[in-house]
Write the C-alpha cells for this entry.
Amino acid sequence: MVLIIAILASIVVPRLTGAAAEANKSKCDANWANLIRALELYAANNNGAYPADNAAFQADVLNSSIYFPHGAPVCPFSSTPYVYVGDAAGGTVTAHIH
Ligand SMILES: [Zn+2]
C-alpha cells in the first residue's frame, strides 16, 4: 500500500508543479503584453516620446498609478521588475524566457 502511494505521488506531484509553472509562465507573458500596451499608451500620451531610459520607465510607467493602478506587475518566478531597453525615440520591454 505504501509503495502504491509512493508511486502515485511520484506521478502526481510533478504534474502539479508542472501546472503551477505553466500558470506562472502564462502570468509572466500576460504581464509583458500589458507592459507593451502601457508603453505604447505612454508614448501616445507624451507626443510620441518613449521613456528616456529604464529608470524613467520604472518611475513613469511601471510604478505609475496611471498605467498600473493596482501596482507594478512583477515576474511570478523571480519577483523582479521588468526592464525597458530603449530611449525617447523608442524601445521595448525585455520579455522573459522561462
Ligand atoms: Zn518572468
Observations:
- The pocket of zinc ion is lined by residues 28, 75, 77, 96, 98 (CB under 6 Å).
